[in-house]
Amino acid sequence: MDLELSEEHEALRATVEDFARKEVAPVIGDLYEREEFPYDIVAQMGAMGLFGLPVSEEYGGMGGDYFALCLALEELARVDSSVAITLEAGVSLGAMPIYRFGTEEQKREWLPQMAAGEKLGAFGLTEPGGGSDAGATRTTARLDGDEWVINGSKAFITNSGTDITSVVTVTAITGTGEGGRKEISAIMVPAGTPGFRVAKPYSKVGWCSSDTRELFFDDVRVPAANLVGERGRGYAQFLSILDEGRVAIAALSVGLAQGCVDESVRYAHEREAFGQRIGAYQAIQFKIADMEMRAHTARLAYYAAAAKMLQGKPFKKEAAIAKLVSSNAAMDNARDATQVFGGYGFMNEYPVGRFYRDAKILEIGEGTSEVQRMLIARQLGL
């Protein structure tokens, strides 16, 4: 078992690390405080090919693998999570459902611009009354001739209202299946479709430079051909997308956890208290050592999940473990880094202040920590 990165993966990791330090770090603090979407950074990431990493070249992508995307997310999140989640959601939730389940026509129409970072896609699953209970979907879609007519709403949808958002794929009840169960399908709704309304951005605790909104559908009509994958398989399709996405979120979480270590080590070398630098005190040394331990073990967890995924083996349990361990590590490290920085850690101008605000959502988004435990238990036969 070789945990060393290949030359290609290491070159990508180093390139994204350099980009994050030189291009993202100097500007993201101001963007975050003003709650502005990082359009220039997104354009640069698009030019680098990051949005097309796991997409094949025939659809405008880089022809890489999903692990490459995870490495990019980790390095971005070491500096800022708003930028990282914009990439993660744009690929994992925006492009991948079309890439995995779309028709050839859908792929050729939508993927090239998404892979280039020129347009963003979003996925609408969560609703105001159904987060973890995605089966509680109330949004409906009925066929009227050769069109779907969609009514309902979605909540907490990332990348859904930017100036470059091109399409939102939404889950909706399209009928009743066996045993009276809801038939849930996935349907693409292009931005600007009449009746499709995007609310103002949420006022959030963290991810303040990420676009997150509520969506409303009032007799929205789209072609029947906008169905993604099989009718009635929308929920099942999205569950498989979530398995991949959990590995990506785990990588992002590891990045935040490692960023906390980076900042704390630097500060421990600079800050003086009681006549010497605080890094000389065992209390600080042990706290940072624990932080490094969490980041290291969490990285191993997502590497293991990614390895099984790339080998085509079942990885649901490993993805849940990786997401659970990594999000815990991010939250714990953010808290400890803030303690290392003391009063300065409570200031938004310092990265650890942003890290602390950004960490909590990692225990909630793309499956809460409780959901991850449920998935792990089920895979153990409980």
Automatic annotation (TrEMBL):
Residues 122-220 form the Acyl-CoA oxidase/dehydrogenase middle domain. Its cofactor is FAD. Signal peptide: none annotated. Residues 232-380 form the Acyl-CoA dehydrogenase/oxidase C-terminal domain. SUPFAM superfamilies: Acyl-CoA dehydrogenase C-terminal domain-like, Acyl-CoA dehydrogenase NM domain-like. One of its GO terms (molecular function) is acyl-CoA dehydrogenase activity. PANTHER family: ACYL-COA DEHYDROGENASE, ISOVALERYL-COA DEHYDROGENASE, MITOCHONDRIAL-RELATED. Belongs to the acyl-CoA dehydrogenase family. InterPro entries: Acyl-CoA_DH_CS, Acyl-CoA_Oxase/DH_mid-dom, Acyl-CoA_Oxase/DH_mid-dom_sf, AcylCo_DH-like_C, AcylCo_DH/oxidase_C, AcylCoA_DH/ox_N, AcylCoA_DH/ox_N_sf, AcylCoA_DH/oxidase_NM_dom_sf. This is Acyl-CoA dehydrogenase. It comes from the Bacteria. Residues 6-118 form the Acyl-CoA dehydrogenase/oxidase N-terminal domain. It comes from Pseudonocardia broussonetiae.
